[in-house]
Amino acid sequence: MATTFHLLTAGYGGDRVASTVSLVESGSSLVVIDPGMVSSVSAILDPITQLGRTAEEVTDVVLSHHHPDHTMNVALFPNARVHDHWAIYRDDVWTARPAEGFEVAENVILWETPGHTVQDITTIVRDGERTLAFTHLWWYEDAPFHDPLCTDPDGLHAGRERVLEVATLIVPGHGAPFAPTAATSR
Question: Which pLDDT does position 142 carry in this prediction?
């Protein structure tokens, strides 16, 4: 089964902030990751429309953590299951489950990676020869070694090490995707 990654919008930080928002197609599943703050909802919805899809077709939404800049636009996807660090939500049903190892869709798996917050998760996607990590372990490619808002520095660095063992592409919380190098902060 083909799995395809689409960057809907690259995030940024500074005087204004936006999360990096991604879409993964895996078989019949459409997974949006971190539909948070953006300059307007068109930054999320227009690229989906350009792919010939609709917000109503999105089957799953993954929230890397519960900061508003990563969750603000979750309601754009009315038919989706919503995944976080400890549950799946759909309509009025809250189904508790650990995130670690949970398969959202074929080739789309959640890892618990606390660090930035205690609730952080990383979405691991296998896309052919690539392994992508959608994560807030890095804000952007040249992120500082120490996350200034980190709640668990040891956890953050352990999570980075774990991700760097497998990732060929990192999709950070607030920046463009990048291929890790020896210089990638651990």
Answer: 84
- Residues 52, 83 contacting (CB under 8 angstroms): no
| The pLDDT of residue 109 | 98
Cα R_g (the chain), whole angstroms: 15
Going through 34-102 in order, the beta strands assigned E by DSSP cover: 60-62, 81-83, 87-90, 93-96
| pLDDT of the residue at 160 | 94
DSSP 156: H
Return the pLDDT at 1. 67
Rounded Cα distance between 147 and 43, Å, is 26
* Residues in the chain where the model's pLDDT stays below 50: none
Residue count (the chain): 186
Alpha carbon of 9 to those of 27, 45, 102, 171: distances in Å? 22, 10, 25, 11
Distance from the first to the final alpha carbon of the chain: 33
Distance (Å, whole) CA 115 – CA 76? 28
Q: Given the structure tokens 């809250």, which residue do they identify?
A: 94
Q: Rounded CA gap, 19 and 2, in Å?
A: 26
Identify the pLDDT of residue 182.
84
Q: Which domains does the chain have, with CATH numbers?
A: 3-172 (3.60.15.10)
Strand order in the sheet with 169-172: 103-105, 108-112, 121-127, 130-135, 169-172
